[in-house]
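explain this:

___
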Amino acid sequence: MNQYPPSSSDPASPPPAALSGGTSTSVRLALPTLVPYVTYTIIGLTSLIYILQLVSVSLFGFANDAAQMDWLELYGARINSFIRAGEVWRLLTPVLLHASIPHILFNMYALIIFGPSLERYFGRWRYLLLYVLGGFAGNVLSFLLTSGYSVGASTAIFGLIGAEGIFLLQNRKLFGNQFGRAIGNIVFIVGVNLVLDLAPGIDIWGHIGGLLGGLIFTWFAGPRWAVAGIAPNLQLVDQREPREVVTGASVVVLIFGALAVIGIFHPITP
């Protein structure tokens, strides 16, 4: 998520493609196959909106020449004063907007790396909910603690990174020897990106907020796989109940919704 004064790449690594189960023996069990239509749709929609951003500049020039803000950014970016004036959709819409071609390419690359595997683990609707909640949480924390304006899908992508870490942790017995390497990759990716976030123009609070949103949601609502059946007819079953998914989403909305209210009525930053 790029932040701009009144003026990232998110590298990822895919988790293991199959889970291992068993106690004294190890059994390789592939997860159900699922074409990642939600990931592809998000990439397509985000790319289309970026094209519209470029078209708006070609037709009408910049909405704000000093900040080089296009017209879609004007109406959808995270701009604190507009949010306080009631335009609360700006806590969601920045995930669809980008500031430059490298910006959108980095974020869509990260999404295509992380998204398909997580969509397969979570299922389409739970994965979409995760993406939206990560973006919401990141934009709320950015709204609360930063000024200027910001756009970018990396809030939601950091939500995916946090979700994958919790998913691996909660299913570590099934991953067997692969767990240590997989969780180490996640910690490394988060650490490197947070260091890179110290560079000017990067909204570190948006990334931290997205990460927290993904962590919290997945802790309550992420898949918890168990091996069921009798060998050799074994299968993986998600033991998470639908009500737990509702609980996870509600916790994220309540926490970050409360922070948004604080930012509206008791501003910390301009």
Notes: Confidence is low (pLDDT under 50) at residues 4-24.
